[in-house]
Fold this protein.
Amino acid sequence: MAELLTSQAKERLYSASKVVILTGAGISAESGIPTFRDKDGLWTKFSPEELASFDAFYKNTRMVSEFYQKRREIIEHTEPNPGHKALAEMEQLFDDFHIITQNIDGLHQKAGSNNVVEIHGNIMNNYCIDCKKTYTAAEFEKIYEENSEHIPRCECGGLIRPDVVWFGEQLPGDALEKAFHLSEAADVFFSIGTSAQVRPAADLPIRALQNGAYLIEINPTLTGLTNFTHLNIQEKGGEILPRLKKEIELNFRH
Ligand code: OAD
């Protein structure tokens, strides 16, 4: 089987001490979680304005809460795929290895990755919009089930929302700052399973590139980022990442 890495990619990976991975919905597609903008994507079936904005939540709390509770239940029963697992194993091969993810499903952590920066939040976490009290998925579920209207309220009376970033909202400041800092310092930067259409996440690979990183994209389709990459691997993450990890291991790390 032909090698995935070019000689230049090997050289850059061999000398890399800081490796950063940006992931999007595509990395979880092979676990059965739909992406957003592909043929069967969430945003081709549902309108983001009606489900993923604070206005929608405030005006139609029941519908939005039910949508997120359903997704939460699906994600709870979803397992990481070979792509997530290969990334968790790759962490052991480099001195400094971080994953920045746009995903809210927690599957990188479930696969065993330790250094994960979640820039769009995590669907398992919830908080009161008034007093900011936080609720775990189990705590939330209890309140949600007890309320026949499925309008979950905090002890203070405020509505409880999922801790995810909605359209028109700022990203969590600490996570975003860390993501930019890591990207700027990266020696090799991988963009995996993201259409690179949503900012500021889409700025991260560009920022890495501007600061001298070697840029590798893994995505079965071309994206707006493809033209800027040094190496483009047009394959599915779950199929290619285990091979890539083995290649790195065999070539340079003993
Ligand atoms: P998109 O749905 O925009 O893009 C998914 C990408 O994954 C596409 O480029 C696909 O080609 C690619 N893909 C599909 N299957 C794949 C596979 N098996 N392996 C690798 N790649 C595959 O999803 P994101 O780029 O993650 O934001 O979208 C970014 C943000 O838009 C999301 O985080 C979400 C959404 O609105 C918020 O909810 C804040």
About this structure: Strands lie at 18-23, 96-101, 116-118, 121-128, 134-135, 160-164, 188-192, 214-218, 231-233. The two ends are 22 Å apart (CA to CA). The mean pLDDT is 95.
